[in-house]
Design a protein that fits this description.
Length: about 575
């Protein structure tokens, strides 16, 4: 069943290239310059603005072995177990495969996810033994894990269990020995750099083609789920990933496309207005991730695969509650981590990696908390929480062009962590009590290898060049954003503050969360901005003061009007000119 539903009232919407052609030359130039900096010539602009939707952009490695073994298991009614991950990518990948098998061949395999509080990442030997004892599978399908599970897969083979892997993590050491390893990174052809959900989408497409059941598969819903995983996993904005995210946002903004996923519909019931990439990143994905950060992520798979309205409403409410709790816990971890970081930086101002630990921290929030601390101190950060009696567990995030994954690999070879892995921007690790002091000391002196730096944002023009609605059109045409396609920012140089700033306060606490002020550009355009750095804004924003501002635009669409908001990313005082 196809649920793709994109009916539009009134005129047929223009294609991206038609929209581009109707823009003023100044706006067209901003777009072509942005594309040129990405290495895209004018003759490739149409493909850049509107990538072709092609699930078969190239053969997946070992897909024939994957389909062959799964086909045999389905035909012979073998016990199948799907093992995913506790983050949004692993959750959505699991939901995609479960729904596909139910819709096309009518089977309901068992499934499981690791628990962040009790398990290590992915499929290790301990988890393999637990899964075997509980489920007795003949075939295990790993999604978003398994590439580096050599010992676990070998042990399962001894028990008569074959393993299929769909994963996107780099291979460390030898092949895991799975019956099929569908991981482009292990075969040197990861052109699309898809996350596990994106790869599972492609696997299901080829599976349904081979089984000749494509008409039964709800591909649109699978693509919607893959888009959520893609946004959550912050992969490179290759053509495949860009089109998946674009299609997902279009699907989400039409209510009829949510009917096949009542759990997601229930979760989004509290989200008002049109969804875009930023809102998915900051409002929807955190709610999907929250249960897995603080406890078990398994209810979220149920949320995305069940049709029972009572169950979906209950789990959706639980996701929202857990996300609010996660925010509170994370704020406190960040506050304490910054206090520890201040002390370390005071004594060691050039420390390459801040390795910080506290027994009271919650290991489920160390990743996002480390990201905030890394941004504040402009260096890589690892946060570790107590895990068991004699172990520490946590996550790290890198800053700028640093490859934290390679740094951790070196530390692992030195015997300073019990286990660990990851990539350039994010890592997960565990260390014992005996290792923690040496690990922290190594962070003070061991440099982090540098990698190619892809900026997360890029200034694309001056505020006076376009009207607010034109900037919105330009940004919409360039979206979605991420690695390789940085988020656009706009300059306002020599802007004059028209009055002292005023505070925006939270309704429940009365505490200021941002400051607001009106400015005027040198060309006479007035605009209102909001800045979350309250102390700096109060100090700098005085009537008649001059500033150089870097801005991001957000658009709020309501039935009666569209609002264009400007958020300050940075503000530098400037001496009056003339």
């Amino acid at each position: 069943m196809q649920t793709f539903c994109m009916e539009q009232k009134g005129k047929i919407p223009m294609t991206p290239i038609q929209t581009f052609q109707r823009l003023r030359p100044a706006a067209q130039k901003i777009i072509t310059d942005y594309a040129r900096r990405r290495g895209i010539a004018p003759d490739g602009l149409n493909e850049f603005l509107h990538p072709n939707w092609q699930l078969e952009r190239g053969p997946l490695p070992q897909i024939e072995q994957f389909i062959g073994r799964l086909t045999s298991a389905v035909n012979n009614q073998e016990p199948i177990l799907i093992f995913g991950d506790y983050d949004a990518d692993g959750i959505t990948a699991t939901a995609i495969l479960l729904r596909c098998l139910r819709e096309t061949v009518g089977i309901e395999p068992r499934w499981a996810l690791p628990n962040r509080q009790h398990d290590h990442y992915g499929l290790d030997l301990e988890k393999a033994r637990s899964l075997f004892a509980q489920h007795q599978p003949k075939l295990l399908v790993c999604l978003d894990n398994g590439t580096n599970s050599q010992a676990a897969i070998a042990w399962l083979r001894q028990q008569g269990v074959e393993t299929l892997v769909v994963d996107h993590h780099p291979l460390e050491g030898t092949s895991p020995g799975a019956t099929a390893l569908v991981n482009p990174k292990t075969h040197g052809n990861d052109r699309d750099d898809c996350c596990a959900a994106g790869l599972t989408l492609q696997v299901c497409h080829q599976l349904t083609q081979t089984w000749q059941v494509a008409s039964k598969w709800d591909r649109a819903t699978a693509m919607l789920l893959a888009g959520l995983g893609t946004v959550a996993d912050a992969v490179s904005m290759t053509p495949m990933n860009r089109v998946i995210i674009r299609e997902t946002i279009a699907l989400l903004n039409n209510p009829c496309n949510l009917e096949p996923i009542p759990g997601l519909k229930a979760l989004l019931s509290s989200v008002v207005g049109e969804l875009n990439q930023r809102r998915l990143q900051f409002e929807v994905i955190p709610a999907l991730n929250a249960p897995g950060r603080l406890g078990s992520a398994e209810p979220v798979v149920t949320l995305l695969t069940t049709g029972d309205p009572t169950t979906t409403e209950t789990i959706a409410a639980y996701c929202r509650e857990q996300n609010e709790l996660r925010k509170q816990i994370q704020r406190e971890v960040v506050r304490q981590a910054k206090a520890l970081a201040d002390a370390v930086v005071s004594d060691h101002p050039d420390t390459p990696v801040l390795v910080l630990a506290a027994p009271s921290w919650h290991c489920g929030v160390t990743g996002p908390a480390a990201s905030q601390v890394a941004e504040a101190y402009q260096r890589s950060v690892i946060l570790l929480a107590r895990h068991g009696e004699k172990q520490w567990k946590g996550s790290g995030r890198s800053a700028n062009a640093e490859h934290l994954g390679q740094w951790l690999h070196t530390v692992k070879q030195l015997g300073l962590v019990e286990r660990g892995g990851g990539h350039a921007r994010a890592v997960g690790l565990a260390a014992t009590d005996a290792q923690i002091a040496a690990l922290q000391s190594t962070g003070l002196v061991l440099p982090v290898p540098q990698t190619h730096h892809e900026p997360e944002a890029e200034v694309i023009g001056d505020l006076d060049e376009l009207r607010a609605e034109e900037w919105a059109t330009v940004i919409a045409l360039l979206a979605p954003f991420g690695r390789g396609n940085p988020f656009p920012r706009i300059r306002a140089l020599s802007a004059v503050c028209q009055s002292d700033s005023t505070a925006l306060t939270a309704k429940d606490t009365g505490i200021p969360w941002a400051m607001r002020a009106k400015f005027k550009t040198t060309a006479g355009k007035t605009f209102t901005v909001v800045w979350r750095e309250c102390a700096q804004a109060q100090h700098q924003w005085r009537a008649g003061g001059w500033s150089d501002l870097t801005l991001e635009q957000t658009v709020q669409t309501k039935p009666e009007k569209t609002f264009y908001h400007w958020s300050v990313i940075s503000c530098r005082p400037r001496e009056p000119t003339g």
